[in-house]
Design goal:
With 415 residues, the protein is α/β, with parallel strands linked by helices. The protein contains 17 helices and 15 strands. α2 packs across α16.
Length: 415
């Protein structure tokens, strides 16, 4: 028998409702789509299974899905990003929630299983764990799954690997690769929210420090730009020669991690890979450095090496773990090495997630209404463009349109 929900404390709901109301006030694009689609109830009879960071902005998306007719079951995608008041409020809104802040790895897996117990037809994933569990444990669900969407770089990497092996059993839209996600969420959202969390957690100065950013994709670009704006000397570590050259031409220093490890005061990894900052780097770091991960999984700053090397550990502040090296140097790890902007902060700004969740909503609607073959697909250009158009509409901005003559000229090879 499937459970209705599993959360920390339903009595926390009033605080969750207050947080959700604040977020909803600043999500005009999601609100506009909800208003335009409300009458038709396009998700009536559809069960949506979501694995997302369960905080106020996410809650607004889940409420909209409910309002459009869906049955919604949700699990938290990160133990430290789950906000218990939000979970309680969502349960009162009729969402089947399975998560709590600080859940163990075993609980995390069990919560995904509880969510899948609702037999979703549409999946909204964050990191690829739901799809991986369906492929690995619940192949019986495949026949009823229409498809889904994935919003992270890490998740897209995993889905692409599944597709290459021929084991991705249904269509998935790569929301992370859409312009509305890359340009705004990854660059401006990550850029601001990482530093929001760093500053809130440490209460330390950025100006004058050397900040090492590992990875110069869209997220790395955003984190680097904000660091520079706060007065830091920025060093970029990259494996891709084009991105490395781009970082150099954007005004940043570029070097490998072995060299950067000796210079940095703050380290932020945002690559989606594993063991980016590891033992040989910890061995040469300064006393008092800050270590943070802004990639999806807690494998970029390799914590097992820190634990093996440390002669002592303690927690001087909330969300800070200090590892004391044999020579007395102290290395400060933020948010347990998990996604720092959510583990130690509130995640992306509300206005940014308005765009991202509007894209998730349109993608879920598209998947539910169109029959596609198994595989990984780009978000249709029309949906991607519509998000930007709706945002401009909510701002009262009108842009130029091509004339028929201009459209014909652009489509022709003749003078």
């Amino acid at each position: 028998m499937r459970n209705e929900f599993r959360i920390a404390d339903i009595k926390l709901a009033p605080e969750g409702h207050r947080r959700m109301e604040w977020a909803w006030e600043y999500m005009p694009v999601l609100k506009l789509i909800a208003e335009k689609e409300a009458a038709s109830k396009p998700l009536d009879g559809v069960t949506v299974g979501a694995c997302l960071h369960l905080e106020a902005k996410t809650a607004c998306l889940l409420k909209v899905l409910r309002g459009l007719g869906a049955t919604v079951a949700a699990a938290g995608s990160n133990p430290l990003s789950t906000q218990d008041p939000i979970c309680a409020a969502l349960v009162e809104e009729g969402v089947h929630v399975f998560s709590r802040r600080g859940m163990s790895a075993d609980e995390y897996g069990d919560n995904l299983r509880e969510m899948l117990g609702w037999d979703p037809q549409v999946i909204i994933d964050d990191g690829g764990d739901v799809v991986a569990m369906v492929v690995g444990e619940r192949r019986d669900l495949v026949k009823n799954i229409t498809g889904g969407c994935e919003e992270t770089t890490t998740g897209i990497k995993r889905l692409r690997a599944m597709a290459a092996e021929g084991v991705l059993p249904f269509p998935m839209l790569a929301v992370n690769d859409a312009q509305s996600k890359n340009l705004f969420d990854n660059r401006y959202g990550t850029g601001q929210s990482v530093w929001d969390a760093m500053l809130r957690t440490t209460n330390l100065m950025v100006a004058g420090k050397s900040v090492v950013i590992a990875g110069y994709g869209w997220c790395g670009k955003g984190a680097s730009k904000r660091a520079a704006g706060l007065g830091a000397r920025v060093i970029v570590v990259e494996v891709d020669p084009h991105r490395a050259l781009e970082a150099l031409m954007d005004g940043f220093e570029v070097m490998n991690m072995n060299d950067a490890a000796k210079l940095g005061d703050v380290f932020i990894s945002v690559t989606g890979d594993t063991k980016v900052i590891r033992r040989e780097h910890f061995e040469v770091m300064k006393d008092g450095v800050l270590l943070a991960n802004a990639g999806h999984f807690d494998v970029e700053v390799y914590v097992p090496d820190l634990r093996e090397m440390a002669v002592k550990t303690y927690s001087p502040r909330a969300n800070v773990d200090t590892y004391v090296m044999p020579d007395g140097r102290r290395l400060h790890l933020l948010g347990e090495g998990r996604l720092v902007n959510l583990a130690a902060g509130d995640g992306h700004p509300v206005e940014i997630m308005d765009l991202s969740f509007a894209m998730q909503l349109l993608s879920a609607l598209y998947i539910s209404q169109n029959k596609l073959s198994p595989g990984l697909y780009n978000v249709p250009y029309e949906l991607d463009r519509r998000i930007a158009e709706l945002k401009l509409e909510t701002l009262g901005i009108t842009i130029e349109k091509l004339t028929p003559e201009q459209e014909a000229y652009m489509a022709s090879w003749r003078e």
